[in-house]
Amino acid sequence: MAITRRDLIIAAGTVAVTCTAGLLAQPPRPLIGPSVFDYTALPAQKTDVGEIRNVARGPTATLEELEMHITTLRPGQRAHAPHRHPHEEMMFLKEGTLEATVNDQKIPMTTGSVLFVAPNDLHGLLNNGTTDATYFVLTWKTPKTGA
C-alpha cells in the first residue's frame, strides 16, 4: 500500500494538533510571592568576566515576569556588549564602581548608586574600578512590554 499525498497531509495535521495541545497543556509557572532570597545561599556561577547569582524569574500577581540576578564584574570587565530591550531595568550597585553607558552618555556609578534604564535605551556597564563590582539587576515585563 503506497502512502499518498493526502495521507501525509493528514499525518502532518495530526502532529501539529498534538504539538499545540502539548504546549497549551503546560502548567502555568508558579507566582513569585513574598520571599527573602539569602545572598549567601545563592549559588555563584562563574563567568568569563566574574560571576552571576540567579535570584528569581517568573510571574507575580501583577507582572508577566519578574527577573532578578546579581552580577559581579572583575576590574576592566563588562557583563556583555551594550544592548537594548523593550522592558525596563534597574541596577543597584552593592560594591565597587561602574561606568554606565546609556544612549552614548557615560555615567559614573559609585557604591549605592541606582541606575534606571527605560525601554529600548542602549545601555551597558563597565567595571572601571580596581576591585570587583557587584550589582543587583531587576527587570520586569508587563503586557505593554511586548516581548
How would you concisely characterize the structure shown here?
The chain is mainly beta and 147 residues long.
Task: Provide tags for this entry.
single chain, 147 residues, mainly beta, Jelly Rolls, 6-stranded antiparallel beta sheet, 3-stranded antiparallel beta sheet, 1 helix, 9 strands, 14% helix
Q: Kindly name the structural category.
A: mainly beta
Low-confidence stretches: none
Number of H- or I-type helical stretches: 1
Mean pLDDT: 89
- The sequence of SSEs as H and E is HEEEEEEEEE
| CATH 2nd-level architecture | Sandwich
CATH superfamily membership, which one? Answer: Jelly Rolls
Number of domains: 1
**CATH topology label:** Jelly Rolls
Q: What does this molecule look like?
A:
It is a single chain. The protein is mainly beta and 147 residues long. It has one helix at 5-24; strands at residues 45-46, 50-58, 65-73, 88-95, 98-102, 105-109, 114-117, 123-126, 133-141. It has a single domain (39-141), classed as Jelly Rolls (Sandwich), CATH 2.60.120. The longest helix has 20 residues, at 5-24. The relative contact order is 0.19. The mean pLDDT is 89.
Write the layout of secondary structure elements.
Elements lengths: L4 H20 L20 E2 L3 E9 L6 E9 L14 E8 L2 E5 L2 E5 L4 E4 L5 E4 L6 E9 L6
Antiparallel strand pairs: 1-2, 2-3, 3-9, 4-7, 4-9, 5-6, 5-8
